[in-house]
Predict the structure.
Amino acid sequence: MPPNVTAPFADPLPLTGVAVSAARKAEFWDRTARQYAADPIADPAGYETTVRRVQALLSPRHSVLELGCGTGTTALRLAPFAGQLLATDVSAGMIAIAQEKLLAQSVPNLSFALGDADGPMAAPCTFDVVLAFNLLHLVADLDQTLAHAVQALKPGGLLITKTPCIAEMNPLVPWLALPVMRALGKAPHLLCLKGDAFTTAVARQGLDILAVERHGSRGKDVRVFIVARKPMGN
C-alpha cells in the first residue's frame, strides 16, 4: 500500500446491490478523474470563502474525516488546520491523483483511502469532524449517508457540508437535461433537493444546525453550506 494511503475503517462490503452500486460509481468517476482534476474551479472566490470558513472551524485537536474528497485539493488545504485528516473517495482514480499531489507536498497528517459514502464510514464516535463537499447530492440514500456520518462523529462533533441543491437550478436541469446525460453515461445519480429540504434532512438526524450559508460570489448560489453539531451524550 503506498505511503499515506490507509485502508477504509469499515469492513469490506459483500457483493450486494450496495457493492455493485459502489463499483458503478467508481467506474464513472475513474473515467472522469483526469478531466475533473484539470477543470478549473467555477467560482474561485466562493471556494476560497468556504475554505477559510472551514479552516476557522478546525483545530489541531481534531481528527477529521472527509467524504468524497475527489482529487484531494481541499483536503490538502484543510489538513494543516487539523490534527489528523483522513480523506476518502469511492474512485481509485481520484485517490491516485490525490496521492500524486500529496507526494509533491509535505502534509504528514493527511492520508487518503478508498471509501464509499453510501456505506458505513468508521467505527462509532471516531471523528471530531466529518466533511462532505459537493457530495451529498450524489449519494443513493441521503438519510442513510447522514446517519452513517453522525454515527462516525464523537458527541459534540461537527458535520460540515457544502451541497449543490439541484432543484434550485433551472427546472429543465433535473427533469430533462440530467436524464439525458445519465442515459449517455455523462452524469451519475443525482438527488434533486432544495436548500430547505436539505437542511431539514440534516436536522432529521438529531443534529443541531449551527449555520446555513451561501458562499457564492456571483449569481444565484445553489450550494448550501451547513455546519451542524452532534449533541453531547449521543
